[in-house]
Amino acid sequence: MRVLTPAARPKRPLPRFIAIALVATLVTEAAAHWVTALEPLAGLAGVAMVIAVCLAAARLEERLFFWLAPRPSMVRVLGQLMIGAAGVAAALAVGLVLSFLPDALGFTDWLIGAGAAFALWWGGAVTGSLPVLLIDVVVSALVPGFRRRVQLAVLSLLGLLLTVAAVLSATVVEVLAQLRARTLDPTLFNLTVDDRKLSGEQVVELANRALEHPAQVVLGALGVALVLGLPALWSATGKLADAVMERINPLSQAFDEVAHGHRDVRVEEGGSTELAEMTRRFNTMLDALTLAERMERAFGVYVSQHVLERIRAQHGDGNIPPSLREATVFFADIRGFTSMSEKLSPADVVAVLNRYFARVVPVIERHGGYLNKFVGDAVVVVFNGPMDQPDHAERATRCALDVQREILAMNAERAFPELKDIGDGVLKVGVGVATGPMVCGNIGSVQQMEYTVIGDTVNLSSRLTGQAKAGDVVVSEATNAALSKDLVGEAMEPVTVKGKEQPVRPFRLRPD
Fold first, then answer.
1. How far apart, in whole angstroms, are the C-alpha atoms of residue 31 and residue 24?
2. All domains in the chain, ordered by first residue
3. What is the rounded distance in angstroms from the CA atom of residue 366 to the CA atom of residue 380?
4. CB burial class (10 A; 0-12, 13-18, 19+) of residue 212?
5. pTM metric for this prediction
6. Which helix (H) or strand (E) holds 173?
7. How far apart are the C-alpha atoms of 43 and 38, rounded to whole Å?
8. Are the C-beta atoms of residues 49 and 24 closer than 8 Å to each other?
9. What is the pLDDT of residues 165-209, one digit of tens each?
10. How are beta strands 191-193 and 196-198 bridged, if at all?
11. CA–CA separation, 320 and 403 (whole Å)
């Protein structure tokens, strides 16, 4: 039994265009110093580089998050905090170092911007991972439902964003108020934006205007918080989606395996309540399907494949009403079976019969015959019932001849060593075939039924079997009349059989 468990989460490759964007930015920025018309192109390349760096930060953080997944809970939480702090610190340190370097051909500004973008996205991705991690580690035992987990993760991020917005708003308002009250030195805020210088006094004037509209300050801080929170939202939603897919993927794989006929699979029951219940129901369904197929196979051992297919076509309805059909039936009977049974042990008798039936039954199936029953050592086979077979007489005769050929082959192979001290040491079988009307259908009670054939034609077949010597196939006159010219049998003397007032003329055929 194979149990399908969530596979290791795939390591998404780092964006290939990071190096391309970096090289493009450096080249176009250098070219723009000599060709002014290339400045817009350099700007686009720089934006592409910033986007690439953000994606790289997200993928690296994701890999580290999944690397921590198998670790103990406290290690995961502390590790996530350390990863966040280390990434931001490293990016800021690189930016600080670059800020003291000369701006060679404008490269430094873009590199500082890329470092700042990396730090922003890295910190946001770690922030987004923390609610998912804390819910998975701490809250999952109390809130097993996936829907509640998603709600908690979203509410946690929303609360975090609102907190950041509130802190930014309060900080900005406080700084502006201190500038207005001159408790802060305005010269600390001398700024240069796109080669335009803003003095501290101009900053104070802007502060005074901003304080006249505090709502705009709050909205501005909220907008900044949302921009800063985009990496966190991206990170959290991605990991929540991965949490769902890692449980859905084994289930999808299991459906594919079942569709290809494999029944030795199960899906590990785990994850949130809903997903665990889904996999449990799938496993229950598969158990029921496996049991039904085993029961069908067991049932198929006791009934013909034709009957089984008929029941399938009737969607499980096992009722095959009796009907009068023109059909052909043959009996294959072992000669001297009574004497053989007296001289052999019961185990040897059963061994001989099973070995004989094991070779004869496939021959019958190959010709499309319905193996009606085993009557001791005899085999009863019907053609044109329950399946329609217009050439039933010829099918039955050819099948009977092939049965005799198979017995000859078995005797040549010395397949019955138990018979070495009995007669000629070989198995001898006679076959009688008759064609005519017979009643075909289910006969029995509600508790147990059997598909069988009854009628004068069946009795005639049994009587003709008694006229067949070892290796012979004796057919009725009606059967012989329905055969093709290459199968017409040799006429025998008319014989009187039990149940018939008039003598019947049988015809003998023997395998080549």
1. 10
2. 2-250 (no CATH), 320-509 (3.30.70.1230)
3. 16
4. exposed
5. 0.48
6. helix 146-180
7. 9
8. yes
9. 677 667 766 766 666 666 656 565 555 555 566 565 666 666 666
10. antiparallel
11. 29
